[in-house]
Design brief:
The protein has four helices and three strands. The chain is α+β, with helices and mostly antiparallel strands. Strands 1-2-3 form a three-stranded antiparallel beta sheet. α2 packs antiparallel against α4. This is Integral membrane protein. Keywords: Membrane, Transmembrane, Transmembrane helix.
């Protein structure tokens, strides 16, 4: 059986980077909303959605990190009846995934919860959309008021 175990150093770097990013985006998001102003809610919402995407990414990387030494066990736990057909493993860091490859050519996921990738994707799309709305709101020229009317 071939194996491609997740490497601990890239996982730790990713976990620390994503956690610091989530922390920073959370602080910026709440302070942007608190300060108010044009586009504040969109800016803050974009930051908070980005923070949630980063938290989901940390969760996925933590799942890989905690399973680093027991890849075979994760494949067995994920699908015991198919475990006898497992011929190898493949690891992905973006999105975080551990796939158990079967000799028949198929594969199944293990270790990382399946809902994390859709959550990360949805949060990233929301963050980008809100950031674009915030930019458009900032660039919007306020109507000119004429005195005496």
């Amino acid at each position: 059986m071939t194996s491609s175990h997740p490497a601990a150093l890239p996982l730790l770097i990713g976990i620390i980077t994503a956690a610091v990013t989530a922390f920073g985006l959370t602080g910026y998001g709440f302070s942007a909303i608190g300060r108010g102003g044009r586009g504040a809610v969109a800016r803050g919402g974009a930051a908070l959605a980005g923070a949630l995407a980063a938290v989901a990414y940390v969760w996925g990387l933590m799942s890989l990190f905690l399973d680093e030494s027991g890849t075979a066990q994760a494949c067995q736990d994920a699908n015991a009846p198919l475990y006898g057909q497992v011929s190898g493993y493949s690891v992905s860091y973006l999105p975080p995934a551990l796939d158990c490859r079967m000799s028949s050519g198929g594969s199944y996921s293990a270790a990382v919860p399946g809902f994390l990738t859709p959550v990360m994707t949805a949060c990233a799309v929301i963050a980008v959309t809100l950031a674009l709305i915030a930019v458009a709101e900032r660039r919007r020229i306020p109507p000119v008021e004429t005195p005496g009317r």
